[in-house]
Amino acid sequence: MQDTRAKALDSEKITINLGVVDLGQVDLLVQEGFYSNRTDLIRTAIRNQLAKHADVIQQTVARKSFVLGLQRYSRQDLEALQAAGQTLHIHVLGLASIDKDVPPELALATIESIHVLGALQASPAVKAALAGRIR
Hints:
It comes from Natronocella acetinitrilica. Helix content is about 50%, strand content about 20%.
C-alpha cells in the first residue's frame, strides 16, 4: 500500500493525442526494442526536452519565486500564519499539497493566491473555497 501512495505522489496521469503516423513510429521503435513501451518513449522524450530547456526552467523558477518540487501545507502551518496575521501566496512548480484536515475557512483566511504548475492536492471543499484564487 505504501508503495502505491508514494507512486501516486510521484506522478500525474496525462492524456495526449497523436497522429496515426506519429503513433505508428512510436510503436515501431517499441517493437524494435528501443523502448519497453509507449510510455517509456514518451517519458524519455519529455525528460530530454526538459533537460534541453533546464536553464530556462531554472531562470523562470528563480524569477517568479516558485518552490521547485513538493510543498506541503499542514493545518498547523496555516493556523500559525493566521495567529501571526499573515497570508500566503503559493507558487509551486511540482506538487502543492494542502492537508485534508485543513478546513475551507482556514484556507480562505490564510491563502491569498495559488499558482501551481504541476498538481494541487487538497480536499474538494478547500479547492472549491479557493477556486477564485487558483490560477
